[in-house]
Amino acid sequence: SLARLALSICGWPSSQGSGVTYEGLLLVVQRGLEQVTYTSLCLPDDILHRGMSHVPNYHYRDDGMSLWEAIESFVTGIVTFYYGGDAAVSEDIELQAWVMDIFTNGFLGRTSSGVPSSLQTVAELIKFLTMVMFTCSAQHAAVNNGQYDLGAFVPNAPSSMRHPPPSEKGRAFLQHFLDTVPEVATTANILVALILLSSQLKDRRLLGQYPEEWFTEAEPRRLIRAFQGRLEEIRDRIEERNHLAELRYNYLNPLEIENSISI
């Protein structure tokens, strides 16, 4: 299952550095998967659903929306170039099998997730592909790249607790706190995992960079150049903001985003 695959990749450091067993982690992932919906994976819908449209200085939303729109524009150009209309989408057997495989094996066939099991129109295909690209690139960067920044100071995000949290206010004291947070060995395990998760690979491929020339037609190549140009504009805007900011937010800078998850 998807949960077992995820844990086979990241379960060792998590289980070694927390009080949760492999089985416990599996249960956590399964419960988390139950909360994943198509709305939560599509940034414009998710922002609206969570009531975060008008929160000021929300850089994740602002940078993320810029990236979503850039990806959507790129995907729109590519899809409309290769698919002449809705019938071309609905009659594409390989495409429909791919979407069904994602629905069945990725989301366990849960219709309640809202994830489509088939695509009937060009618009549906554009949204689905934009979601896939955004999730595997920008969304992953947003939730992964800052793990060390947040978790290196263990009290920010302790991986385990050796005692239950206080049940009454004013009853927590320094020694109780020190006895509760992870001990040195556990902390070391978690820090190693966070360093690995947040490290940049030397051979990483940034969003919009395609060393292999998969497309030979002039129009797709033009669309790639246009996409790269929009990403450069987003990069410049983020770096200009960060230059003046007291607290920088750089996780959605295109220079920090890989084409796909590479852990």
TrEMBL record:
This is LOXE3 isomerase. Keywords: Dioxygenase, Isomerase, Metal-binding, Oxidoreductase. The keyword Metal-binding applies. InterPro entries: LipOase (IPR000907), LipOase_C (IPR013819), LipOase_C_sf (IPR036226). Pfam families: Lipoxygenase (PF00305). One of its GO terms (molecular function) is isomerase activity. One of its GO terms (biological process) is lipid oxidation. It comes from the Eukaryota. Residues 1-263 form the Lipoxygenase domain.
